[in-house]
TrEMBL record:
The lineage of its organism: Bacteria, Bacillati, Actinomycetota, Actinomycetes, Micrococcales. InterPro entries: CdaR-like_regulators (IPR051448), CdaR_GGDEF (IPR041522), PucR_C-HTH_dom (IPR025736), PucR_C-HTH_sf (IPR042070). PANTHER family: CARBOHYDRATE DIACID REGULATOR, DNA-BINDING TRANSCRIPTIONAL ACTIVATOR ADER. Pfam families: GGDEF_2 (PF17853), HTH_30 (PF13556). Residues 150-289 form the CdaR GGDEF-like domain. Belongs to the CdaR family. This is PucR family transcriptional regulator. It comes from the Bacteria. Residues 342-400 form the PucR C-terminal helix-turn-helix domain.
């Protein structure tokens, strides 16, 4: 095995080459993961890879649950004794885990020692790949930033430049922005930890996007990741949100491995490079307003923001709070369960254009019970059933009341 490892090093072998060598030695499967458990490479016979991938040490997104997997060999006969993991370390940098899976026999300390030797080769391969990726990523990120700022040049030139980077932007696409919910400017984390977490966030998005389509532009900026996803054969909003949601699910990985929550915004479809700056603004708006509408881990499309797009333009949340308090009075508070119940009744009434029968059906109330509630609401708020301006005011106040983070 030592001679095999030396050959891999001298040939400038990749992580994939190493996994194949380790899998062949153990007669099973081998993999390399990031520190948070994302599988970078896995090798072995197809049947063995399928068996390993179905083990309970992986979550439903395919992430290795590193929090529950010890490093080293387990005692023979104990659960998990036919697999072993070692850390891939280069200097002070932790690059992840190298794991070996045997079909039957328990792995011994001698096997772990061999894995540790192989992990040294893995560290060399990963360090080389990261160095190359860092240079390539810098040029890609600079081009994408220029394109989003309208500085990428004429359409044909920008398309050609993107193609030289391995990206395809000559097709209908949407701008997707994913932004961490934690504000790094107000965090108590150290700068090194923040940088490490952001790099992990970017790598997760790049890997998830490239697994679907390697020609999709994707890069990380500060607290966000930006991707230009093609709209595909189903350009509708629902189809786009499903696609983006699937990618976000892979990146999120059930939230394990020290991953931070993030919100995602999607722009309208664009068909040219010149439209990218406006689409980028739309995606940013969708991220920020979506987080206010739904809280952390929100996913929003710009066309689905509705009136919230205008409400989000108000710079001072105190102004919005005062508007809600003045419009809804005591219903603006949650001092009693009845207030929330009455707000719900008022909201459905307005949504049904004051159709009492339909509102009673939706809320499962008796018709007379609802009429009593309408009378009570008018005593509290005014004659909204006959005053359209008051109805508009109350409708806006209810929408603002639903927003988070004011």
């Amino acid at each position: 095995m030592h001679r095999v490892l030396v050959r891999i090093v001298l040939a400038g072998g990749s992580v994939r080459d190493l996994c194949q060598a380790v899998a062949g030695f153990f007669g099973g499967a081998a993999l390399v993961t990031t520190t948070d458990g994302r599988v970078l490479s896995i090798a072995g016979d197809e049947s063995e890879v399928e068996r390993v991938s179905a083990l309970d040490c992986f979550d439903r997104t395919g992430r290795l649950v590193v929090e529950d997997e010890p490093v080293g060999a387990r005692a023979p006969g104990t659960p998990g004794s036919t697999r072993a993991f070692v850390r891939i370390v280069a200097g002070s940098a932790d690059h992840g885990l190298l794991g070996a899976f045997s079909p039957e026999r328990p792995l011994t300390p001698a096997d772990v020692h061999l894995l540790e030797r192989a992990a040294t080769v893995a560290a060399l391969a990963i360090t080389k790949e990261q160095a190359v990726a860092a240079v390539e990523g810098k040029y890609r990120a600079e081009f994408l930033r220029d394109a989003l700022a309208g500085r990428a040049g004429e359409g044909a030139d920008a398309v050609a430049h993107a193609a030289s980077l391995g990206w395809d932007i000559a097709r209908p696409m949407v701008v997707v922005v994913a932004e961490t919910d934690e504000n790094d400017e107000e965090t108590t984390r150290s700068p090194d930890e923040v940088r490490s977490l952001q790099e992990r966030f970017v790598r997760a998005w790049v890997q998830a996007v490239r697994a679907r389509d390697p020609s999709v532009p994707v890069a990380g900026f500060s607290q966000e990741v930006v991707a230009l996803l093609p709209t595909g054969p189903e350009p509708g909003t629902d189809a786009l949100l499903r696609t983006v949601g699937d990618i976000a699910k892979v990146v999120r990985g059930d939230g394990g491995g020290g991953r931070r929550t993030f919100s995602t915004g999607v722009s309208r479809t664009v068909s040219s490079v010149a439209e990218l700056p406006a689409a980028y603004d739309e995606a940013l708006t969708a991220v920020h307003v979506g987080r206010q509408m739904h809280g952390e881990s929100a996913l929003a499309h710009f066309d689905g923001l509705g009136i919230y797009r205008l409400l989000a333009l108000v710079p001072d949340g105190a102004d919005l709070r005062r508007f809600v308090e003045e419009s809804l009075g005591e219903l603006a508070t949650d001092d009693s369960p009845e207030n929330a119940d009455l707000r719900r009744t008022l909201s459905v009434l307005i949504d049904t254009n004051l159709n009492v029968a339909e509102t009673a059906r939706r809320l499962f109330f008796h018709y007379n019970t609802l009429r009593y509630r309408v009378a009570k609401l008018e005593r509290m708020l005014g004659p909204f059933t006959s005053d359209p301006q008051l109805r508009l005011t109350l409708a806006l106040a209810l929408r603002i009341h639903e927003m988070r983070g004011l």
